[in-house]
Amino acid sequence: MAGLEIISDQGYRIDGRRSSELRKVCARMGVFTQADGSAYIEQGNTKALATVYGPHEVRKGRGKIQHDRAVVNCQFSMATFSTGERKSRPKGDRRSQEMSMHLRQTFEAVIVTELFPRSQIDIYVQILQADGGNYCACVNAATLAVIDAGIPMKDYVCACTAGFIQDSPLLDISYVEESAGAPFLTVAMMPKSEQIVLLEMNSRLHADNMEKVLDLATQGCKDVFAVLDRHVRDHVSESHALMTAS
Amino acid sequence: MSSTLGVLSDAERLFIVHGVQDDLRSDGRACEDYRHVQVETDVVSNTSGSARLRLGNTDILVGVKAEMGEPDPGRPKEGKLEFFVDCSANASPEFEGRGGEELAIEVSNALQRIFNSRSTLDLTALCIIPEGQCWVLYVDVLVLECGGNLFDAVSLAVKAALFNTRIPTVVVTADDEGQQEIELSDDPYDVKRLDVDNVPLIVTLSKIGHRHVVDASWEEELCSLARLTVGVTQKGTIAGLNKEGSGSLDPESIYEMIESGKKVGMVLNSRLKEALEKEENSKREKIGFLG
């Protein structure tokens, strides 16, 4: 890309990070009162909101009912003002539908759906501000929201991206780095069992470099897990303190 | 709002109706009391202006984006204002897919109605080249949670976001061949603000039993059959009026409702202005959704 150096000679990226550093992650659980579970996450300038409703009885499309497990229903949407160029519609385009499908697959893999036969769990995610790694922010926010709703999961799911720019792997790439046209990998994994639940790459990458990039992304997911786990523990001990105080 | 977010039992309904009759509502408010409003501006960095507002359990996020476009042929010397409302599925599972569209159109029509008057916003200030280019302000409303009184909350958030909106200054120069060129200022602080003093706020008055209340919670909305939405400016002018709901109202009570809507609306306008100016002058760090 002309005129813009993704990594400086000193090894720093445009936003001042080193190649294996995540952006700052801030999160909050229980943002809304009406939903069964909700969470908000900021990863750098990417901001996402997730709410969870359920498990409840299957509302629309009775044909979807599964007799041995719960149905997971996801919807991904992006606020029209979230991107640099205004989006004409928040949901329903191909990209959002694909994202919804990926989210559903990811969460069907981790939620213990067998415990809630003939019911439905709704997960809705909304991007409020987009700056690269939208899918990751959504997965991480949704994980917190599912935990907030008290729905049993086998493990956390944490997602992270890693790119390969100027012959070196980069962790958690931002919008500018994403649009530089280099290959990047999106990985969602269960950090404790080290199982990958989603893996996606859109561009071309030499097979020899694949391992390096994947290793970095895996490490990134574990770093995200450490942050999320701390938030969950803080949130729970805070709510516990509030409950015992009253 | 045609809320189907829940159901009330007869006993709950009776309790609310009797409470309203005695001017003491279930959350302790009197009939003309508003709930606590929290507002914060400049929460989404890639917009020209944004605001997040929380009124009880109602949560609204508004983003304003200024883009260049062509003016309407009928009004060549004016900019444009476009409203778009999105009822996010986050607010209720019923809004999933196209479920929220009907309500979204209802809200955006209500906004259009109160912004219809020429004195509301000086749209000529948004003109760049007459008959050529103008600023188009896309006002995008995102409903994140619905806890009653959606219309009022949306109008408050829209006014706050417009107050926060900063439009880059542009200079139009003509070159030798008479071609006009638009030049955007390099300085990010070289911006234009909008004058929102005449922007009205919506006050919804819900008829419950023989009396009416302002700022109904969702439970109270379920008890009310007819509502009146009134646009009120800072000076107390009425801008836009609409009766909603399946019930009917007699003319006598409509006058009463307009009168109390006007009273509440004027207070609301001046309080919002105070809060926005106070926020702007304080160097407080942004909290957003993390607070």
Automatic annotation (TrEMBL), chain A:
CDD domains according to UniProt? RNase_PH_RRP41 (cd11370)
Keywords of the record, alphabetical order, are: Acetylation, Cytoplasm, Nucleus, RNA-binding, rRNA processing
Intracellular or extracellular location(s): Cytoplasm; Nucleus, Nucleolus; Nucleus, Nucleoplasm
Q: Name one GO biological process term.
A: rRNA processing
Which terms in the Gene Ontology molecular function aspect does this entry carry?
Answer: RNA binding
**A GO term from the CC aspect:** nucleoplasm
Q: Which intervals hold domain Exoribonuclease phosphorolytic?
A: 21-152, 155-219
Q: Which InterPro entries match?
A: ExoRNase_PH_dom1 (IPR001247), ExoRNase_PH_dom2 (IPR015847), ExoRNase_PH_dom2_sf (IPR036345), PNPase/RNase_PH_dom_sf (IPR027408), Ribosomal_Su5_D2-typ_SF (IPR020568), RNase_PH (IPR050080)
What superkingdom does the record give? Eukaryota
Q: How does it assemble?
A: Component of the RNA exosome core complex (Exo-9), composed of EXOSC1, EXOSC2, EXOSC3, EXOSC4, EXOSC5, EXOSC6, EXOSC7, EXOSC8 and EXOSC9; within the complex interacts with EXOSC2, EXOSC7 and EXOSC9. The catalytically inactive RNA exosome core complex (Exo-9) associates with the catalytic subunit EXOSC10/RRP6. Exo-9 may associate with DIS3 to form the nucleolar exosome complex, or DIS3L to form the cytoplasmic exosome complex.
Question: What protein family does this chain belong to?
Answer: Belongs to the RNase PH family.
Its name, as the record gives it, is Exosome complex component RRP41
| Source organism per UniProt | Branchiostoma floridae
UniProt lineage: Eukaryota, Metazoa, Chordata, Cephalochordata, Leptocardii
Q: Which gene encodes it?
A: LOC118417027
Automatic annotation (TrEMBL), chain B:
Q: Which GO terms describe its cellular component?
A: cytoplasmic exosome (RNase complex); nuclear exosome (RNase complex); nucleolus
- Per the record, the major location class is cytoplasm
Q: Which UniProt keywords apply?
A: Acetylation, Cytoplasm, Exosome, Nucleus, RNA-binding, rRNA processing
What subcellular locations does the record give? Answer: Cytoplasm; Nucleus, Nucleolus
Q: What domain of life does the UniProt record list for this protein's source? A: Eukaryota
Could you confirm whether the keyword Ligase appears in this record?
no
> Which residue range or ranges hold the Exoribonuclease phosphorolytic domain?
34-168, 199-263
Q: Name one GO biological process term.
A: U4 snRNA 3'-end processing
* Record InterPro entries: ExoRNase_PH_dom1, ExoRNase_PH_dom2, ExoRNase_PH_dom2_sf, Exosome_comp_Rrp42_subfam, PNPase/RNase_PH_dom_sf, Ribosomal_Su5_D2-typ_SF
Single GO MF descriptor: mRNA 3'-UTR AU-rich region binding
Mind telling me which PANTHER family this protein's record contains?
Answer: EXOSOME COMPLEX COMPONENT RRP42 (PTHR11097:SF8), EXOSOME COMPLEX EXONUCLEASE RIBOSOMAL RNA PROCESSING PROTEIN (PTHR11097)
State the family named in the UniProt similarity comment for this chain: Belongs to the RNase PH family.
Assembly notes: Component of the RNA exosome core complex (Exo-9), composed of EXOSC1, EXOSC2, EXOSC3, EXOSC4, EXOSC5, EXOSC6, EXOSC7, EXOSC8 and EXOSC9; within the complex interacts with EXOSC2 and EXOSC4. The catalytically inactive RNA exosome core complex (Exo-9) associates with the catalytic subunit EXOSC10/RRP6. Exo-9 may associate with DIS3 to form the nucleolar exosome complex, or DIS3L to form the cytoplasmic exosome complex. Exo-9 is formed by a hexameric base ring consisting of the heterodimers EXOSC4-EXOSC9, EXOSC5-EXOSC8 and EXOSC6-EXOSC7, and a cap ring consisting of EXOSC1, EXOSC2 and EXOSC3.
The protein's name? Exosome component 7
Q: Which organism is it from?
A: Branchiostoma floridae
